[in-house]
From TrEMBL:
The keyword tRNA processing does not apply. Keywords: ATP-binding, Ligase, Magnesium, Metal-binding, Nucleotide-binding. Transmembrane segments: none annotated. It is an enzyme of class 6 (ligase). ATP binds at R3, K4, S5, L6, R7, R134, M135, G136, M137, G138, G139, G140, Y141, Y142. GO terms for biological process: folic acid-containing compound biosynthetic process; tetrahydrofolate interconversion. InterPro entries: FTHF_cligase (IPR002698), FTHF_cligase-like_sf (IPR024185), NagB/RpiA_transferase-like (IPR037171). One of its GO terms (molecular function) is ATP binding. Its EC number is 6.3.3.2. It comes from Parashewanella spongiae. This is 5-formyltetrahydrofolate cyclo-ligase. It comes from the Bacteria. Substrate binds at L49, E54.
């Protein structure tokens, strides 16, 4: 199956989950990520607002705020095409919709958090395999971002439904594999 067809198939599967399943899986996934971060010095976490049937990050965001962990969201870079910026996000952040219809904080240079200050980046994905390979939506934003991240000091975690695991992700030279992927039922660790 080509990448485009694979994306469509997996997106269809996750969008077919009921509202109750989505809610339950989101709380399970949030709990699993918090367990994964428990014994680490985490002050700043970058993640995303869910879209298109992705595992809902709202319960996780709320738990991070309860623990006084700073939350950042990605914003499409206004000048460097294909790049992401991360902005501080709280319940009062002014939001807008980007060209993909995804909510993001309004760009304010005072709220930009350099990737060097991110302790954890939680990435969305469409599909993943047992080797930590991830396939995104096809824009390459996270692959370009992760190529510039020190993976020793910043932990990168994929966040997905269990139904998004496949036997083998068709990878390209620019794809950045992940060492950790969290689903509602499993913490996957890869070498």
């Amino acid at each position: 199956m080509d990448r485009k067809s694979l994306r469509q198939s997996i997106r269809k599967q996750r969008n077919a989950l009921t509202r109750q399943q989505q809610e339950s899986f989101s709380f399970q996934g949030a709990s699993r990520i918090l367990d994964c971060l428990k014994n680490k010095q985490v002050k700043t976490v970058a993640l995303y607002l869910s879209n298109d049937g992705e595992l809902d990050t709202t319960p996780l965001i709320e738990k991070l705020w309860e623990k006084s962990i700073r939350v950042c969201l990605p914003v499409l870079h206004p000048f460097n095409k294909g790049q992401l910026l991360f902005l501080h996000y709280d319940g009062k952040s002014k939001m807008r919709y980007n060209k993909y219809g995804i909510a993001e904080p309004c760009l304010d240079i005072r709220n930009v958090i350099p990737v060097t200050e991110l302790d954890v980046i939680i990435t969305p994905l469409v599909a993943f395999d047992c080797h930590g390979n991830r396939m995104g939506m096809g824009g390459g934003y996270y692959d370009r971002t992760l190529a510039n991240v020190d993976l020793v000091t910043t932990k990168v975690i994929g966040f997905a439904h269990d139904c998004q695991q496949i036997s083998k992700v068709p990878i390209e030279s620019w794809d950045v594999p992940l060492s950790t992927i969290v689903t509602p039922s499993t913490l996957h660790q890869f070498d």
